[in-house]
Amino acid sequence: MNMNTPAIKSAVVLCTGEVMHKRLRPAKNAFRYGVFFIRVPVRDIKDINRMSTPKLFSVNRFNALSFHERDHGDASQPLAQWIDALLKSEGISDADGEIWLQCFPRVFGYVFNPVSFWFCHRQNGELRAVVCEVRNTFGEKHLYLLENGGKLVNGEELQARKIFHVSPFCKVEGNYRFCFMKAQQDLRGQAAQHSLIKHLARIDYEDAEGPLLLTSVSGREQVMSNMQIVRVMLRYPFMTLGVVLRIHVQALRLWIKRVPFFSKPIPPTEELSR
User: Fold this and answer.
1) What pLDDT does 241 receive?
2) Which helix (H) or strand (E) is 243 found in, with range?
3) Is residue 6 part of a domain?
């Protein structure tokens, strides 16, 4: 499927899938677990609550599942205004189509997003840029801008230099390799009017010695309904508090395996890098 074609316009998309993480050295460590996440049409945020949205989901209001603008970008202004200004400050003025923000939602008011992805499209649906909003457990965040000067194609590899502290078991050096893919599988029979849209975001990290970490988050779009919300909350009962708990559990495992520990450096002065 051409990843430059927007998925579902003017409605929040619910996705179910998994997170994968694999460390290659000096001690091997790997895990994967099920998650659910949402994809939010940023330019239509103000209209979402007025649409036929499930009662268990809301925007900027407390609910079983919710999305709050202040959890992303600059809390002092609307998200669409913020991301447009950010892109234009970096010389990108043609990302004037829909912008899909992929992130974990709040579950009963709580959320932690290690990384959120802003997929910035042109009006013709082509993917122009991706902004990765990375956060650590110290309350700090950094933005990585990924673009090639033109249209981003499905599965294209993009790189950024690592300058932001995320884990005490990795130095702040080296590079990230990003890859974003979208695939569509048409269904037959009674479900022929629907399709399965799958999303994959892969982030691999390498230092001077070569590949060190392989990570990905993937998911398949689901119909956003009250019943589906109940199902995913029962299936993944530790979202999103479990995200933080798993971070600390995996850190303990690395410490037990005697993986070298690096103290937290001073955060970068720049908000965004490439």
Assistant:
1) 86
2) helix 241-256
3) no
CA distances from 47 to 51, 61, 66, 104, 133 (A): 7, 14, 15, 20, 24
Round to whole Å and give the CA distance between 56 and 210: 45
**Range(s) of the domain holding residue 108:** 13-273
Tens-place pLDDT, residues 98-127: 999 999 999 999 999 999 999 999 999 999
pTM for the structure as a whole: 0.92
| Residue 3 forms part of a structural domain | no
Spell out the residues 6+ positions from residue 10 whose beta carbon is closer than 8 angstroms to its own: 41, 44, 47, 51
Segment 40-65, tens digit of pLDDT: 999 999 888 887 789 999 999 999 99
| Residue 8 in domain | no
Total tally of structural domains belonging to the chain: 1
Q: How far is CA 206 from CA 10, 161, 199, in A?
A: 38, 10, 23
Please indicate, yes or no, if residue 40 is contained in any of the structural domains. yes
